[in-house]
């Protein structure tokens, strides 16, 4: 990961965009969140040396960090973790602070998806919109086969964790567990892999406290969906490594 980003930083915007997209695809498929965190720590520890060869290295690294958060490769809390592993006044710590500022800025998501002028950001936003529409159509009585075909037509298998996340949130909001039938069919067809299922469930788990503000029984429902998914063999064994959020009384 360190070599991927270092190579990209010394090339044009197109290659930087491609590196961010590749990093997103590799997350969970090959790299765990811990791997990504450690990779960025290595990058930031050597940031001063990198700056000798690459102009504006600190700003570029901040963009890669911020983009990783927008792409759900890292959670905002991971920035705190990365910062805690660096010396307080080093160049790398300043880069982490810069990344936090980029994320906190107005319209940060849209801006960072297009930070290198690539078209992929728009493709991701378009995919999110199409995923929401196909799930709404299925939820209101659509056919599972048609929903699966729509997911296939997106042509973004590395982004199917978004389907999982949105399907679970919609199931919680609408109190409609038909979404589990759709995910089961996608899994049976190999349309959504175990890795993508795991990443989708991980994203829900990380944001569960926020979800519970809008959906009072979110933790209870997630616990049910998690048991269901584990019984069906959807998830990687590593999913059980972290603590499962407590269900409120």
**Nearest-angstrom radius of gyration?**
19 Å
Count the DSSP helices: 15
Helix content: over 70%
Structural category is mainly alpha
Query: N- to C-terminal separation?
Result: 42 Å
Kindly state the mean pLDDT as a whole number?
86
Oligomer type: single chain
| Spans of at least 5 consecutive residues with low confidence | 242-249
CATH class of the largest domain: Mainly Alpha
Q: What share of the residues does DSSP label as strand, in percent?
A: under 5%
Shape: elongated
Using the 3D structure, state the CATH architecture of the largest domain: Alpha Horseshoe
Largest sheet: none
Under CATH, the topology of the largest domain is which?
Answer: Serine Threonine Protein Phosphatase 5, Tetratricopeptide repeat
Taken in chain order, the helices and strands follow as HHHHHHHHHHHHHHH
Q: How many structural domains can be distinguished in the coordinates?
A: 2
Task: Indicate the topology.
Layout: H1 2-9, H2 13-26, H3 33-45, H4 47-53, H5 57-70, H6 76-84, H7 91-104, H8 108-113, H9 120-139, H10 144-154, H11 161-174, H12 178-188, H13 194-206, H14 208-214, H15 218-232
Helix pairs in contact: 1-2, 3-6, 3-7, 5-7, 6-7, 9-10, 9-11, 10-12, 11-12, 11-13
Q: Could you explain the architecture of this structure?
A:
The protein is mainly alpha-helical and 249 residues long. It folds into two domains: 112 residues, Alpha Horseshoe (Serine Threonine Protein Phosphatase 5, Tetratricopeptide repeat), CATH 1.25.40.180; 114 residues, Alpha Horseshoe (Serine Threonine Protein Phosphatase 5, Tetratricopeptide repeat), CATH 1.25.40.180. It is built from 15 helices and no strands. The longest helix has 20 residues. The chain is elongated, with a radius of gyration of 19 Å. The C terminus is likely disordered.
């Amino acid at each position: 990961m360190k070599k991927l980003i270092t190579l990209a930083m010394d090339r044009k915007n197109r290659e930087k965009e491609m590196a961010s997209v590749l990093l997103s695809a590799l997350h969970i498929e090959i790299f765990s969140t811990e791997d990504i965190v450690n990779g960025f720590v290595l990058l930031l520890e050597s940031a001063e040396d990198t700056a000798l060869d690459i102009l504006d290295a600190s700003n570029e690294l901040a963009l890669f960090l911020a983009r990783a958060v927008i792409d759900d490769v890292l959670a905002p809390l991971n920035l705190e973790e990365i910062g805690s592993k660096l010396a307080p006044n080093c160049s790398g710590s300043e880069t982490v602070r810069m990344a936090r500022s980029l994320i906190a800025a107005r319209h940060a998501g849209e801006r960072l998806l297009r930070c290198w002028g690539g078209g992929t950001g728009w493709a991701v936003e378009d995919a999110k919109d199409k995923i929401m529409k196909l799930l709404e159509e299925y939820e209101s009585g659509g056919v599972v086969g048609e929903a699966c075909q729509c997911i296939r037509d997106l042509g973004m298998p590395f982004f199917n964790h978004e389907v999982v996340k949105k399907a679970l949130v919609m199931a919680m909001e609408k109190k409609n567990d038909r979404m589990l039938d759709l995910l089961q069919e996608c899994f049976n067809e190999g349309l959504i892999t175990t890795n993508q299922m795991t990443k989708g469930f991980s994203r829900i788990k990380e944001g569960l406290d926020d979800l519970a503000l809008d959906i009072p029984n979110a933790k209870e429902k997630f616990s049910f969906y998690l048991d269901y998914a584990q019984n069906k063999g959807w998830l990687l064994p590593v999913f059980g490594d972290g603590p499962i959020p407590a269900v409120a009384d």
